[in-house]
Design brief:
The structure is a single chain. By secondary structure, the chain is an alpha/beta fold. It folds into two domains: about 170 residues, Rossmann fold, CATH 3.40.50.1860; about 110 residues, Rossmann fold (3-Layer(aba) Sandwich). The chain is built from 13 helices and ten strands. Strand 7, helix 10 and strand 8 form a beta-alpha-beta unit. The radius of gyration is 19 Å and the shape is globular. Bound molecules: D-glutamic acid. Provides the (R)-glutamate required for cell wall biosynthesis.
């Protein structure tokens, strides 16, 4: 195991940057707070430019890099790209360009292959994730004997971004995606987008106990723990009176949009009263967009 002996107490105390195209990464933040309660977190929701699933590859890489660099400038000691779409599209580039350790996320194909008894599993993810070479390689590596039914979750990220996790229209949209999987014999459903764990109650209302839902957020928190340990970057546990919350890592919430939905979802789904900072993180592609709009 690689250990960086030059990590100092101040680098251990630095925050972890977590970023998503929008609110979905809150499902990863929830797991990280629970698993690594001594860590400080800076969360960035790029809600102004969500969903990434409808963006071109260059746009996603441009935003992922700009936000990663911004988080490094904020003092982040490690970065979690809590977005399957950004990971699938640009993790290799970002890994090359940033000086801090990185953790990406990917659909839970490997756990699905271990769990499925019927040997048929559905995957809900964005179109960009499903068509990526990284996803194709994941299926080839771990699911050679599994029938994988890929379904782009059009409209689901948008629903979560407006804090809709249970409306009748949303349930009908989901039904159209998962019922054909049930009809084809799937007993496992991979939630291949970090927004989708917030839809678990709605999905359960359709599939009941007929499917196991695979959400990798806890595995991501464990992977982050391993990476921090490899680099000697784990924060020390809070001591009484040092101001850190005992019940979970403290977090700074930032949004490139007005932040209202980030605050609502953090309160409704995580029980956090988040004071959201509105931040501007310009990048090459967003400067072009703004120049075109002017
Ligand atoms: N949470 C992102 C993911 O995991 C959503 C991508 C999007 O904005 O379309 O893929």
């Amino acid at each position: 195991m690689q250990t960086h002996l030059n990590a100092t107490a101040s680098s251990c105390a630095a925050p972890i940057g977590i970023f998503d195209s929008g609110l979905g990464g809150l499902s990863v933040l929830r797991a990280v707070r629970a698993h690594l309660p001594a860590e400080q977190i800076v969360y960035v929701a790029d809600s102004r430019y969500a969903p990434y699933g409808q963006r071109d590859d260059d746009f996603i890489a441009d935003r992922t890099l700009a936000i990663g660099e911004w988080l490094v400038a904020q003092g982040a000691k490690a970065l979690v790209v809590a977005c399957n779409t950004a990971t699938a599209q640009s993790i290799a580039l970002v890994r090359e360009r940033l000086s801090i350790p990185l953790v990406g996320v990917e659909p839970g194909i490997k756990p699905a292959a271990l769990i499925s008894k019927s040997r048929v599993a559905g995957v809900l993810a964005t179109q960009v994730t499903l068509r990526s070479a990284r996803f194709q390689a994941l299926v080839e590596r771990h699911a050679a004997d599994l029938r994988v039914l890929c379904q782009p979750g059009h409209g689901l990220v948008e629903a979560v971004e407006r804090c809709d996790v249970s409306s009748p229209a949303l349930v009908e949209l989901l039904r159209g995606y998962v019922e054909p999987m049930l009809d084809a014999g799937a007993d496992t459903l991979v939630l291949g987008c970090t927004h989708y764990p917030f839809l678990d109650t709605a999905i359960r209302s359709i599939v009941g106990e007929r499917m196991t839902l695979v959400d990798t957020s806890v595995a991501i928190a464990r992977q982050l723990e391993r990476v921090l340990d490899q680099h000697g970057l784990r924060a020390q546990p809070a001591s009484p009176g040092d101001g850190r919350m005992a019940e979970g890592a403290s977090a700074r919430f930032c949004s490139t949009s007005d932040g209202a939905h980030l605050r609502t979802l953090a309160a409704a789904l995580l029980g956090i009263d988040a004071q959201v900072e509105c931040v501007s993180i310009p990048s090459r592609r967003t400067r072009e967009l703004e120049a075109d709009a002017a």
